[in-house]
Amino acid sequence: MITALTIADVKKYVNEWKKNGESIGLVPTMGYLHEGHASLIKRAREENDRVIVSDFVNPTQFGPNEDLDSYPRDFEADKSLCESIGADLIFHPTPEEMYGESHFTKVHVDTLTEGLCGAVRPVHFDGVCTVVTKLFHIAEADRAYFGQKDAQQLAVVKRMVHDLNYNIEIIGCPIIREEDGLAKSSRNTYLSPEERKAAVILSASLRDAGAMIDSGEKDLGKITALITEKIKTEPLARIDYVSAVDFTRLKPKKTLDGDETLIAIAVYIGKVRLIDNIIVR
Ligand code: AMP
């Protein structure tokens, strides 16, 4: 597996591969890879001739009071994981390499970025869309793989690709969970043992909602109320949002219908903000 630290280095290999008519799958990550990331890399491996994993803690998607400095990093472990799955190249640039001394351009997706996580993370999605655009261009990828874990990000990136006619296919992949249901996340390492136990309330509340839906309930007011009540039973949990929206435009919905509905939650467990969701089809 190739380790590339510069954009020029990635382009050198990409040019070669493109000349040979090989397809390229890209998995954008912030590193500290776990089985959630691994599932995306495996899928990319199955569907493309070449697989590029980017491993970059992107500073522009963190707000001033967020966890940029403390975000966990372990590049050696990331390299081993990517190599074991058979990725061709891992791209690990510095912020200076990605943004140079100055950077005047950003990509903004309207409306879809205002609610859910966008409400408390106002600069986040501009940072995501900008870095992802740069990575798409650097990797000249045919396909890019994103987890449903970050459902708003997936919807926003799909919208950006649609609106700006990017020549890339966006593939959404299912959420990988711990045995007790907690969605795997690099940020789970911030939880104390007591908080880790409490964090199971997110997936448990969504599981209850799933059961309610399976039994025929279509009123999203009742479904989100059930989730809220369940989360409130956990003393360490504080709700940021419990929302039901349509998965294309992220507009609030009242009733389950034939369209995909995203039921998304963000909950603080102590100081750690965790997200989870289900999509009802
Ligand atoms: P991150 O490194 O957190 O920016 O995540 C990189 C990619 O991995 C994103 O597309 C995430 O949605 C995806 N991802 C993170 N956690 C999971 C998970 N538990 N299951 C599936 N995909 C995930």
Written description of the protein model:
The chain folds into 2 domains: 2-173, Rossmann fold; 186-280, Pantoate-beta-alanine ligase, C-terminal domain (Pantoate--beta-alanine Ligase, Chain: A,domain 2, 2-Layer Sandwich). It is built from 10 helices and 9 strands. It has helices at 7-19, 35-47, 75-85, 95-99, 117-120, 124-139, 151-163, 193-198, 200-214, 220-232; strands at residues 2-4, 24-29, 50-55, 89-91, 143-147, 169-173, 237-246, 261-269, 272-280. The strands form 2 sheets. A 6-stranded parallel beta sheet has the order 1-4-3-2-5-6, with helices on both faces. The protein has a 3-stranded antiparallel beta sheet with strand order 7-8-9. α2 (35-47) links the parallel β2 and β3 (50-55). It is globular, with a radius of gyration of 19 Å. The termini are far apart. The mean pLDDT is 98. It binds adenosine monophosphate. Adenosine monophosphate (AMP) is lined by residues 29-30, 36-37, 39-40, 146-147, 149-150, 173, 175-176, 183-186.
